[in-house]
Design a protein that fits this description.
The structure is a homodimer of 137-residue chains.
Chain A: H1 4-18, H2 27-33, H3 38-50, E1 54-57, E2 63-66, H4 75-83, H5 109-125
Antiparallel strand pairs in A: 1-2
Helix pairs in contact in A: 1-3, 1-4, 2-3
Chain A binds a DNA duplex (30 and 30 nucleotides) through residues 3-5, 24, 26-28, 37-40, 42-43, 45-46, 49, 56-64.
Amino acid sequence: MLSKKTQYAFHALTYLAENQDKGPILISEISEMRKISLKFLENILLELKKSGILGSKKGKGGGYYLIKPPEEIGLAKIIRLLDGPIALLPCVSLNYYEKCENCQEEICGLNVVMSEVRDNTLKVLENKSLKDVLREH
Amino acid sequence: MLSKKTQYAFHALTYLAENQDKGPILISEISEMRKISLKFLENILLELKKSGILGSKKGKGGGYYLIKPPEEIGLAKIIRLLDGPIALLPCVSLNYYEKCENCQEEICGLNVVMSEVRDNTLKVLENKSLKDVLREH
DNA sequence: TCATTAGTCTATTAAAATGGTAGGGAATAT
DNA sequence: ATATTCCCTACCATTTTAATAGACTAATGA
């Protein structure tokens, strides 16, 4: 399951996407509109900014905004950023790979199946963008 | 990611499947062969027994054994049993469904995408059995 | 320049989940 | 009877999750 953090990130990002024309959006506005704890959301948006997904502006008229158009922001990237691996096992993770301790991957049947699950999952997540989860698209 | 509990369960179950002909297998044997903490494994096997996947026998000559042939033990079932939902969001889970608080599912784009992910994942997990993850099959 | 606005950063906290341990109790075979 | 083996309840330590607090920095504009 995705963490609340990631779920909130999606809420916030879609809000930003749906209001792109309005210029920078206040954290507090997103917090109110999408019912997310203000301080928690602060952390999340900051993290998204540091990863190059969002831009920000301080002072009056400031706020957060998308740096790239929604169709260029992949869902897999967001999940990996905030939740870590998408794969079900460390030994089949593409981005967070860790070797199995007690089984030889080459002959491990689980490895094969879980790789297949990963591929099927990524087939969706890597090819869908923020744009695909907006209300109007 | 699957918890250690679930990963250990798979290790134990494949061991049991690969040694079905030997009659009941001791927890301690599985623990040693698959390098799993004995006491932790006890809990796991007990849980699998209570769910009707394993049978057990006490006293000398006792141990755990598969009740059904490996090809009838689905991977999705084992994961759900020990780790809970397979879906990435509560509102798209088939077995552990929970309503979204702050979004209307009918018009929620995330809901659509995550349902697709779930279906793609289940397409693999529901159609693969313990037999498919054994070394010799 | 100075007050206001708004993001940045570090630390803390409470609760839950995870992974593992301890130690009897109950059933069974010999 | 007794050794064997699973059964059961409780407990514990650590990590993760979700959220909060508060001070700091940067930008704006009157």
